Give the backbone structure.
Amino acid sequence: MADKGRLILAINPGGTSTKVGLFRETELLFEKNVRHLPEELADFKTTFDQQDFRRNIILQILEEEGYCLEDLSAVVGRGGTFKPLESGTYEVNEALVEDIRDGSTLQADHPSNLGALLASSIAKETGISPFIVDPVCVDEMIDEARLSGLPALERTSLSHALNIKMVAYKAAEKLGRKLGEINLVVLHLGSGISVNALRRGRMIDTSQANDGGPFSPQRVGALPTTGLVKLCLSGDYTWKEMKEMLLKRGGLLAYTGTDHVGEARERAENGDKDCDLALRAMAYQITKEAGAMAAALAGNVDAVVITGGIANNKWMTDTLEHNLEFLGEIIIFPGEEELEALMRGVLRVLDSVEDIKVYK
């Protein structure tokens, strides 16, 4: 029987915010989401330079809520874009800290990379264990999924693995089965959209929100290859401008002027044909990708799981349910409960439900 008193501090650093939650076992004691203004972050040359800034905010929150570091049993941070790793819960060791600071194995400069460093620095003060859970770089793709068609461009696995894995566990529980016994297609619908095939709990393929799949509120998804190459070589854009266009100013935003699905839907209902077409096209592309992932599972799908912020939009979920009901049961978990996912990952290893993974 688990000790009822364990306190777990969960940290999720994002591009413009730091989310912090404190749990007593599975009970959320408090959650804070501190927004960072652009001018606050402008003075930092790199993401890593923000570590002390964010750490001080976390410690101040703890103090304001009436807790101190000595109260904690464990601290866990969101895992980042490290080298490819299996899913699971990792204790943050010196090898991971050194690799993050060195930077040579990082696949992208992303605030999630700070999660392990923040957890480690806070844990060191009291001798408790720091962890990360299902980092962005979870890679369980089968070999066939890695080939893109050009050897110089291998397909990679970067995803919202933390939320994807958690809703997969929840779906298994809802189905009355173990995750290792079922196959799922998981649609993560947020500012980036990834569609994922999970075979008996292993994420064997992902559409990778930055490099393919459906277009999303800000990202372009898959594009016509030769047309993209021609655009890149036109001389009209720098790499920085192209990256901005592909990842921050594409998708729904490019077609409608808004990256908010709810606003676009309201405008569509008021007669805006551009919004109506763009939303129908987004749902169409998500449907196609879900079908592809179902095919990757040889049609053996126990459920389709819809999650992420866009899963709060009833028009989108109704449309996807109608389109995908032929695959099997549709399960919806709106939003992203990443702090809860971090907590549950830690409890699984503290309670010996899973083994702690070792970063090497």
About this structure: The first helix runs from residue 38 to 41. Residues 69 and 126 are 7 Å apart (CA to CA).
